[in-house]
Amino acid sequence: MTTIAHGYTMRDLDQLSKIACRQDRSLASDADTRYNAAWSAIAEHLCAAEEPPTPHDLITVGWQAIYREVREMRHMFGHRDKDGTNEVASSQRYRQYWTLLPERPEEGIVERIAVGQILTTIPDLYREAVVALAVHGDYQAAANSLGLKYVTFTARMSVARKQFRAQWFAPETAPPMKGTDRRIGSRSKPLATHCKGGRGPHEMTPENTYRRPNPKPGRRGERVCRACEAERSKVRVAERRKAA
Ligand SMILES: [Zn+2]
Fold first, then answer.
1. Which of 9, 73, 157, 188 is deepest in the core (most CB within 10 A)?
2. How far apart are CA 95 and CA 139, in angstroms?
3. d(Cα 235, Cα 50) in Å, to the nearest integer?
């Protein structure tokens, strides 16, 4: 007979754990889990106790451990409350956590504040370039507005971008830049004012156009005329009806 502590043997531990299982009324979870929860808690209590505990003390420790284990499992599986009548994932919080998209308005706010804070640390020369590009939305127009050559302007933007990114990603190192920021499709050809296709020409106003996503990083997608797109989809629907 192996004695564990305070005269209690391994056999006593087994007996007390079984009694604790019977005393726990919840009867939740499987017999093995219940027995193991009680057994470990009783053994731990026995070894840690300074005064010899009574069998009643140990049984209480056992069923309380079972109760705790069951509660934790119910919590983990998202039962609405602890009485066992609600199903898995019935808790509101559980569903919020696992199914609803997290709404984090603070991220956008923090980023907007950070942009301003970082911009104030960049030397005037480079900050002016960033502001000019933001206002004009075009490298050449921004360069003209500052009375700079195109290459001078892009060089300043490159320094500004490097300094900004270093602080934006601090204390980590900024990841390498990919692609080229062009803003417009072609420098030699002005933006089309009217579409070419379909029943057009339609005017290429901001409301009537959108850009297709471009898989190349840093590149803008093709400008598409919404009116033509609508015509094309009407034709497709008609063709499908005819075929059916
Ligand atoms: Zn069109």
1. 157
2. 48
3. 87
Q: CATH 1.10.10.10 in the chain: give the residue spans.
A: 105-168
The predicted model scores a pTM of: 0.39
In tens, the pLDDT along 60-92 reads: 999 999 888 888 888 777 777 755 567 777 787
137-193 pLDDT, tens digit per residue, is 888 899 999 999 999 999 999 999 999 989 888 888 888 776 666 655 555 666 677
Cα(231) to ligand 1 centroid in Å equals 9
Ion ligand 1 nearby residues (CB, 5 A): 195, 200, 202, 225, 227-228
Q: Which fold has domain 105-168?
A: Arc Repressor Mutant, subunit A (1.10.10)
- Distance (angstroms) between ligand 1 centre and the Cα of 185 equals 18
